Amino acid sequence: MKKVLLITLSTLVAAIGVAYIVFKPNLGRLDMVATLFTGVEQYENFASIKDMYPTTLLTAASTPYDFPSGEPLGLPDRFNFEGSEYSVDDFLALTDTSALLVIQDGSVRFEEYFLTGGRDVNWLSMSVAKSFTSTLIGIAYDEGLISSLDDPITDYVPELAGSAYDGVAIVDILEMSSGAAWNEDYADPDSDVMRMGKIMGIGGSLDTFTASIKPQRAPGTYNKYNSADTQALGMLVSRATGRSLTENMQEKLWAPLGAESDAYWMIDDFDVEMAFAGLNATARDYAKIGELFRNKGSWFGKQIVSEDWVTNATHSSKAHLLPGENPASDYPMGYGYQWWLMDGDEGEYSAIGVYNQFIYVNPTKDLVIVKLSAFSDYATIETEEGYREFQTIEPVSYTHLRAHE
Q1: Which of 85, 396, 58, 340 is nearest to 225 (CA)?
Q2: Whose CA is closest to 47, among 102, 101, 118?
Q3: Contact 256, 302 (CB under 8 A)
Q4: Per-residue pLDDT tens for 93-107?
């Protein structure tokens, strides 16, 4: 009996050892996925994604572009938001800011890094990736690889037949108006977005998950934020061009914009990019897509994406996409082609990611601002204090910046 027990114990120890060897590479990523939106600090993780997850590589341009330095700007000491006054320094610390970069008229006027951030540090920008994915759609459309934005996406991605995306126009998916049934609640571990995100922790196929989504309402009638819409757009880029998102990005955006650093895009078990949230890059390289759009798709005389695309991506006259209190939308910001639209008369728009990531563009004031963060309290409470996105836009607006003294 003792011999049998020893053999059983030895077998169990060996099995645990094998399991540890097999799963050790995934322990860090599993821990990160499990602690997202729980209040746990993430700034170490967001700066180390390429060491934790499988990724593809975007290589720095052979002729990198270095933004020139402009007259320095200083940040104000305090700002007002909804009748209350806040310290700017306290707010940056509160939202676990890692990078704040202000570019006006193409020149760097403010640049500072905090926590684990740095000029050469790649940062997980979450849903900021959506604006890159939609821009790749725009380039494919300009090149005639996508005939019409009114085409059903299933003309290009037949794997989505029978899903919520079957027969849905590409433009409705670009505008987060696909009609798909979806729950983007980050506080609910069983929500659709959290189940899709868990694929990056425990394995699986993003394409298969996207093809499993069911319809809820008529497309083009209601603006409902849905990360799976962007994953479907990632599938569209790949099928329309015959190349991966990374390959497209490298040739069509990363090299032409003069990226100064390598970047990384998270992939699933089948080497498919996490189109909706998996891009890791530096603040200065994120800023370049903001500058590209501020200049209406032109980069030093070369039209990277058409001016018409930029205009349509960052404006909307459709009732369900307008900013403000809108019964046909689930969020008070407006929406374009995977860009958020601000209320007001200055034409502001922004790429925004959870945990307080921003590429903010104000074309009226020739301004691009990048804010990278790891706001640990994000989505832990269902009020503005748990998101601070409107509050973030307030102090980084150019009207609150002053010349450095």
Answers
A1: 340
A2: 118
A3: yes
A4: 999 999 999 999 999
Identify residue 150 by its one-letter amino acid code: D
Let me know how long the chain is: 405
The secondary element (H helix, E strand) that includes residue 25 is: helix 2-35
Structure-token pair, residue 292: 């590209």
**Contact at 8 Å (CB) between 361 and 290?**
yes
Catalytic residue numbers? Answer: 127
- The pLDDT, as a whole number, for residue 396 is 54
Cα–Cα dist 264/272, whole Å = 13
d(C-alpha 228, C-alpha 316), whole Å: 22
Q: CA gyration radius for the chain?
A: 22
Kindly report the average pLDDT of the chain as a whole number: 90
Write out the DSSP string of 46-86: HT-HHHHS-EEEEPPPSS---PPB-S-EE--SEEEETTEEE
Residue 292, SS3?
helix
Q: Which has the closest alpha carbon to 285: 252, 264, 261?
A: 261
CA–CA gap between residue 73 and residue 401 (Å, rounded): 7
**Token pair of 381 as six digits:** 């409470």
pLDDT digits (tens, 9 = 90+) for 183-193: 999 989 899 99
Among positive and negative, which fits the CA dihedral 117, 119, 121, 123? Answer: positive
Confidence band for 205, pLDDT divided at 50, 70 and 90: very high
* N- to C-terminal Cα separation, the chain: 83
Going by C-alpha positions, the residue among 77, 128, 99, 84 that lies closest to residue 384 is 84
pTM of structure: 0.91
**C-beta separation of 159 from 211 below 8 A:** yes
**Residues 6 or more apart in contact with residue 20 via CB below 8 angstroms:** none
The number of helix segments (H) and strand segments (E) in the chain equals: 14, 17
How many whole angstroms from its chain centre is CA 227? 10
How far, in Å, CA of 23 to CA of 95, rounded? Answer: 33
Q: Which helix (H) or strand (E) holds 263?
A: strand 263-266
